[in-house]
Amino acid sequence: MDNKTIRVDGGGTGKLAVISEETVRAIITRQLAFDAVRAAYEAVATENAQVFDVVIGTGLNDGEAFAIKSGVDRKNEMVGFKCGTYWAGNSERGLPAHGSTILLLHSETGFPTALINANFLNGYRTAAGNAIAVSYLARSDASVLGVIGAGHQSEQEIRALAEVRSLSLIKISTRTQTRADWILNQLKDVEIDIRITSAEEAVRNSDIVVTVTPSKSPLVRNEWIGEGTHISAMGADDRGKHELDTDILKRSSLFADYPDQSIVIGEFQHGYEDGSISSADDICAIGLVTLGNAPGRISDNQITVFDSSGIAIQDLTAAGAVFEAAEKMGLVQYIDF
When you count CB atoms within 10 A of the terminal residue's CB, does the N or C end of the chain come out lower? Predict the structure, then answer.
């Protein structure tokens, strides 16, 4: 995404721009997502953007929930929100458990101007955040990746990381053979050694560890983590979600997409609750690292942890970049609204 202001016409005119998943798939690239998310991280870190409190709701049944993440990007004059859903029963319907929709509002009128199907976009946006963290925090020679979780997002994380590090081995831990078979099939075009292992085997001796689960109890034990490891905790985005033994945090340098949110609904909420993290000031915003305003990895022995709880500005910048591209390609559909 370039640095010009992104404006979506139609505020107050009765026209709504609609971008379908098919259009998103035709446009999105790893580089587009990487550039958009990096811009989001830097905007938040320098207070050119503001993230509002996340609103959590539930569906009619257990295992059904949605979250509203909203924000304002003053630099690009963008306002809007994302509704992210998790319906556990969707797997039985042959559908992804996660859903995502972004609504951009006109910065002057507040009227809806663009509706983006972000189901596919969200996977790229989230994985881009991890790729940025790994680019700046993992050792330059990191080549062994351990992944906890084998869902749709895990595939995206693996593909994104394979573009920023020369991986020689990928170890994946998952609870069922069905999920193992699924992800191996999804990644059959990836020319890297991929193995299904236990959680301990996936973590031990890995240079990069990524957790991508909805777990509410720690999956990664402190004694499995060796010096020099980088960990990206991608799953925690609600109160109670928990993937890492909090003792890991006591030995690590801590980074997050948005520190203030990470201690409320991110992985770092547990370190904050047990006192090992005294405040958000103990955590470095990754945008400060990408800008060169704060150090990232400073030694090969350092353990680094990145907490991605997901912020609305990521969604706005990614949606804005897709809209720009779609408009140039004549792929935006306008409807009366």
Answer: C
Residue 3 lies in a domain: no
Residue 57 token pair:
């709701």
Domain that holds residue 26: 15-122+313-336
Tell me the pLDDT of the chain (337 aa) as tens digits. Answer: 444 444 555 555 678 999 999 999 999 999 999 999 999 999 999 999 999 998 999 999 999 999 999 999 998 889 999 999 999 899 889 888 889 999 999 999 999 999 999 999 999 999 999 999 999 999 999 999 999 999 989 999 999 999 999 999 999 999 999 999 999 999 999 999 999 999 999 999 999 999 999 999 999 999 999 999 999 999 998 899 999 999 999 999 999 999 999 999 999 999 999 999 999 999 999 999 999 999 999 999 999 999 999 999 999 999 999 999 999 999 999 999 8
Q: Say how far residue 182 (Cα) sits from the centre of its chain.
A: 22
Q: List the CATH number of the domain containing 26.
A: 3.30.1780.10
- Chain CA centroid to CA 186, Å: 20
Same domain, 283 and 320: no
Whether residues 58 and 143 fall in one domain: no
Please check whether residues 198 and 264 belong to one and the same domain. Answer: yes
In a domain, 72, yes or no: yes
> Residues in the chain, how many?
337
Please report, for residues 42, 123, 153, 236, 322, the alpha-carbon distance to residue 286 in angstroms, rounded to integers and kept in the order given: 8, 19, 21, 17, 23
